[in-house]
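target protein:
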Amino acid sequence: MGSLGPDTGASDSLTDWKTKVAHKQKQCRDAIPSEWQVHPKVLELLDLPLEKKPNRLIDLDVVRKTGILSDRELAITENYTVQELLAELASGQFTSVEVTTAFSKRAAIAQQLISCLTETFFDQALERARYLDQRRSEGKLVGPLHGLPISLKDSFQVAGTEASIGFVSFLGKKSTENSPIVDILLSLGAVLYVKTNIPMTLMTADSHNNIFGRTLNPLNTALSAGGSSGGEGALVAFRGSPLGVGTDVAGSVRIPALCCGTYGFKPTSSRIPYGGQANPGLPGWKPITACAGPLANDFEAMEIFTKAVIGSVPGALDSTAIDVPWRQLDPIAMSKLRVGALAEDPSYPLHPPVKRALDEAIKRVQADGHEVIQLSAEQGHVADATEVAALLFTLETETPVGNIKASGEPPVPSVAAQHQPANRGERRFVPEISKLGKLQQYAALTVKRQELSEDWRKLWSDLRLDAVLGPPAQNTAVPHDTYGWPPYTAHLNLLDYPACVIPFSKTSKQLDRAPFTVQPHQAGPACQ
């Protein structure tokens, strides 16, 4: 499916990687129309360098100050949910051309300020939008996403563009076919216009590589935007995209959502087509199955995207997708839920604002008439699952490292710091397996993974739980290169459970005064 990999020929190692990067960066700059360039006077309003100073670009209303978007375009990008945009597009109140133009302009501004894009194809997007407007003028909507611009993580392949996924050794190789999800979104009426930035190797929570630079958080540019779908999280938060598609194998949709204050949904694997992506690792190696999922600024967008994609019979285009129909639940049956509350794990204590937000959310659920059942840390197995996931992820690191070495580029800081033990090195759940062969290690970890799955099965059954409420991380957004292992997201990938990050509350110096001792940093992958 148009799979990309490095050219391992001897000539590649002799090529100056910086020259390749400079050429690619110039291509990216030239792809932004001159009239969409941010004026230097706007940059003078900011505290430079952006990645070291806490510029709050959303609070500064920097997009309006550029003067690039008209008042109508500002309204289109800021004042409408995805459902409302689709309604306006279907009715003809908005054309796809003007909606696509508005989000393309805003994405171009975002790129210049927070480095969230990799590939841009604005001209092709506008051509597509004109086609969709013509179809609508004939009384025909192409599909439930008719005319809506959608952004994609760089790992998805769009024919004729690159999917370098942060490796210089992957540059210059055009995708020859679309990933199945790309064809599905086009069949549903979407407009694809940009691809978004990721970490080198897709294995850390900092979306930073030597080609496209470091993606910054538009809420505070001194903080991480998360990863590995960090470009999506930052672009959506900047309102440069109404709906983005990321991937997640340890939290890579949910971590950018929690860092950037957006919604992010990780479905069970194989529900949303994942096939045909550029691969940073050993082909066929899937110790934990990754999944694709949406990011947006409103909750209903999660359902709109997921329902539309599942309803398209994705298995017809992608053998990785399971064709289980969308199930519409009866609201009456959900009038009173039994909600489990995930406990703080002692190995990964919650920071004060996270603890407060979780307590407030539990009280809100109870106030709405639902029953909350407090789970213990032992029942949650967060640290245990993190230990298993970490060992699975670090069983095979040679291929990503080889992709870096193939060009001669150095690893970025977050990649150089990874592959350290989870649980601060205090192995508790997995027996000593380091002296075993890799096949035997994988088998032993699979046994421990199944133990966790069985314990959680019993929890759901014995306590008759409908849902579980918990923190998506110990922390809110953190300084660049300091995220470390993602315990509160990775354990859900290990269990292969669906999970959604819902923005709730904000940090507060007044409300979050409780003392907290930061543990020594241990880095690790946040992954795809």
